[in-house]
Amino acid sequence: MLGIVTPVKNESRNLRFLAQTVLSQTRRPDLWVIVDDGSTDDTPKLIKSLENNYNFITSLSLPTKHMKYDPIYRYGHVVHVGLEYALKTDDIEFLGVLDADIRLKEDYYEKTLAAFKSNTKIGITSGSYIVSYRKNKSILRRERSNELIGGAMIFSKKCLLDIGGFPICPSPDTAALIKAVNRGWRLGIVTSTYAIHIRPSESWTKFLRAGLSRYILDLHPLSALFSGPLQALKNLSPAPLGFTIGYFMGILYRLKKIEDKEITQYFNKRFHRGIYKILRRTSAGERFGTDPIKRSVIKISI
Questions:
Q1: Domain's final residue, options 182, 197, 212
Q2: In whole angstroms, what is the distance from residue 156 CA to residue 17 CA?
Q3: pLDDT score for 283
Q4: 118-169 confidence digits (pLDDT tens)
Q5: pTM for the full model?
Q6: Is residue 296 included in any domain, yes or no?
Q7: By the 8 A CB rule, do 177 and 197 touch?
Q8: Within this chain, do residues 20 and 90 fall inside the same structural domain, yes or no?
Q9: Considering its fold, how many domains does the chain have in total?
Q10: What 3-state class would DSSP assign to 296?
Q11: What gap in Å lies between CA 119 and CA 240, rounded to an integer?
Q12: Does residue 184 share a domain with residue 254?
């Protein structure tokens, strides 16, 4: 059985399109948990309508009254709650995350589930990651060929339990991959299907939040110092400078860093991997310059 979790907050428009995506799947989920994180638009009404019309859809509503919203940690918490709920269902073997701003090819779940059968060491799968974005009034797409898409990942139950559940931390999808790889799991990308992210993180505020997140995760300061400006030059946009500014805001406000050494060690080593990147053709470069997540990826065509 497959259970998926969708976290939503004021996502009525996206959720309508997402429901069409899920309902058109050649292999529908056996359980779809939609977790409402205090929406104030029509999202609760839409969720209730879906729940009334389809018996595999259920909803959770999280209390948010008088709560100070934390955009850095909240996503991980909401998904964690939904997946813990799904785990209580008998016979669940696979669990997935499905963000509201994702569109899936109609065979997405059929093929990503088949990937687990192709290799018993695979603990997490996704399809190909395609980003859809606007440029000069045109809609363009680009593929991130070597990345799993965090907003449409599928976990085997064994893998999810092995990593201690969905992480509650900044960048929880990356943290989940780190923990899975550290425990010997492989990561599968099914190249014959895809998920499209229709709301790319290109705004100044999202880069700012990303910088704050990386500070909490203990990214090396020099990496943060250079990555924002370099990305800004590459994109011909000032928005990526928000990443560097966000990181140093974390220093200024003395935000508490995450205490999970397994995750902080990965982000600390990112700086060293950057240095060793120029040595990729040497044995030292092969040893230190390759990201362990990328080393664990298996590409599958089904």
A1: 197
A2: 26
A3: 47
A4: 999 999 999 999 988 766 666 778 888 889 999 999 999 999 999 999 999 9
A5: 0.91
A6: no
A7: no
A8: yes
A9: 2
A10: coil
A11: 38
A12: no
Question: Are 10 and 110 within one domain?
Answer: yes
Residue with tokens 């609760």: 44
Beta bridge partners of 144: 129
Domain that holds residue 74: 2-197
What is the rounded CA–CA span in Å between residue 291 and residue 240? 22
Distance of CA 232 to the CA centre of its chain: 23
Is 302 contained in some domain? Answer: no
**What would the two tokens of residue 235 be?**
């994109």
Distance CA 27, CA 113 (A): 9
Residue 122 CA to residue 184 CA, distance in Å, equals 9
160, 215: one domain: no
**247: its two tokens:** 């990181």
Secondary structure element (H or E) that encloses residue 276, with its range: helix 261-276
List the one residue out of 278, 83, 263 whose CA is nearest residue 166.
83
Same domain, 150 and 237: no
Q: What is the structure's pLDDT at 173? A: 96
Domain ends where: 197, 219, 247? 197
pLDDT in tens, 236-283: 889 999 999 999 999 999 999 999 999 999 988 776 666 666 555 444
Give the rounded percent of residues in the chain with a pLDDT score beyond 70.
Answer: 91
112 and 79, same structural domain?
yes
- Check: CB of residue 51 under 8 Å from CB of residue 57: yes
